[in-house]
Design brief:
- Strand 21 and strand 22 form a beta hairpin.
- The chain has one domain: Hexapeptide repeat proteins (UDP N-Acetylglucosamine Acyltransferase, domain 1, 3 Solenoid), CATH 2.160.10.10.
- The longest helix has 22 residues, at 15-36.
- The strands form 3 sheets. The chain has a 9-stranded mixed beta sheet. Strands 2-5-8-11-14-17-20 form a 7-stranded parallel beta sheet, with no helix packed on it.
- The chain is of the alpha/beta class.
- Helix 1 packs antiparallel against helix 2 (15-36).
- Helices cover 15% and strands 32% of the residues.
Length: 239
Amino acid sequence: MNFYKEKLIKTVKNPFKVLNFITKIILCKIKSIYYSWKIDEGGGKIIFKDPYIKFSIKKHKSSVLHIKGNLKIVDFMNGNNSILISMDHNSKFEINGDFNIGPGVKFDLYKDAVLIIGGKDKESESGITADSLVMVFRKIEIGKDFLCAWNTFITDSDWHQIEGQNHHADVSIGDHVWIANNNNILKGSKIGNNSIIASNSKIVNKSFPDDVLIGGLTPKIFKRDLKWCRDILPQAENN
């Protein structure tokens, strides 16, 4: 059944709830149309699931926002931190499928920077839950079916200069990667397909293969030949 119809049936007995629900639908439509105009390429849309989520796009006229699919602005645990997409001169932000972002998620692209996200493919959803920051100096590429929990920091630069050390190295995160909460994925990180990054890990200038569980402040592989999916399977609920 359609999402809005289900909500309407639950509230139809209370006229004030019905009025509030209809108002939210209208506001979501208005905000979705307004922000979708800021998309430069891809033919996609920005879709609001809650009209009261604080959201803004700050982009230079030379930057390119490419969205193919729906960029969904969603609520998570009633969070109220602002969502921000900030794009400097000649930067490009490309999303190639449906993707969700929740409260407090921020994307900051430096001049000439490129951020590519694959979006949803085989999983039921793909996105970043809440309160996370992606800062791009030159290039970060994230594959399809990306799942990222809260309080995660992803960047390809130190953002300050240390003598004798290159502050930047591209970051690559493969398809079907799950990053748990409170993680740092820093410059030079390369994460293979179908992998999981355990909570409270820090990865910098390291490469990892496909199908592994990675964790630790000095990260190492804890499990190989890993298989996982976003949705809990019925048989697992009974275990």
